[in-house]
Amino acid sequence: MFRKKMTSNNRRGSKVKYPATLAILIALSGCSQVSDKIIGKVMYQRMLEGFAQPRIATLPDGLHVFLCGAGSPLPDPKRSGPCVAVLAGEQLYVVDAGSGSPRNLGPNGFPPGRIDAVLLSHLHSDHIDSLGELNLLNWVQGQRQTPLKVYGPEGVDKVIAGFNLSYEQDARYRVAHHGEDTVPPAGIGMKAVTLPKLQGDDSKLILKKAGLTITAFAVQHEPVHQALGFRFDYKGRSVVISGDTRQSASVLKQAKGVDVLVHEALDPELLMVMETAAADAGVVNMAKITRDIVDYHTTPEQAAETAAEAGAAMLLFYHIVPALPLAIMEGRFLEGVDERYRGKVELGKDGTLVSLPASSSDIIVEN
Fold first, then answer.
1. How far apart are CA 238 and CA 249, in angstroms?
2. For residue range 317-349, what is the model confidence (pLDDT) as tens digits?
3. In principle, which of 144, 146, 221, 283 could form an S-S bond with 227, CB 3.0–4.6 Å?
């Protein structure tokens, strides 16, 4: 079934860096004589560091891409549902809010209370199902005085109205419990902003603020109408996020000369294993679904071809299908990419951070 030769992906690996206090806590956890007092002190120091100086405060001026969710609807221990945070100077935006992804923001130094707005690539459930939690964290932690803006394609107003209704009772309870000064009633809920309808390789500047421009563009994810990708430009650095799409001329157009192309990818051969297993088990509906989804996503090789033709300096994979719980599967997923693209490649996981300092050509990757 697998025609490609297994290859190593060591050159793309990055060492995991643990904060000093976390390393101490891990070391102490094996000692039965450690007192509650010592554990409390270590925990306090870790929390103090996070509250007083979150990670985003230590990053240089520039454009930074953080994967709060590198996965898909399929459960993956290394990857939550699709979510990309983009920091431009002091501005923080989040593209999509897949399952579990909001919980990766705060612990990794991207306080949800700092989010300026959310951008939705499309309205598939795996891209919106954690909007309620994301908004709650943004409102409570940021003491917002106005509802969080959520930009999206036609239909986003219905989605946001639904979430606002679902969280209405919860918001009332929190105001009654904590008080209006702590959780301002004026900041409850979200406000939908419907983006213009785009077709073909159409694009539209949707935001321009403090040196940052955000451009939305149409992508091909039929029968979803419509689906969008986004391009961020800030102080000479640039990032394109493909959203869910087949290999698309519009992604190629927007990614010309980009620093980082964040592209979705689906491996048809690995997915075929799931289809065969489901069919053999008699679960015919799941076999049909796994077969259907192949035709509106991009393969890793196709994404590599787009990155190469566009002249992108780096290709970062996200919305990875299927789940890749084992390292050997990750190597398999990337087979053939090197043959098509010679730039930097990173197979995204939750917590992957790519930094693009202003007035520089550096690309710094941390996991």
1. 18
2. 999 999 999 999 999 999 999 999 999 999 999
3. 221
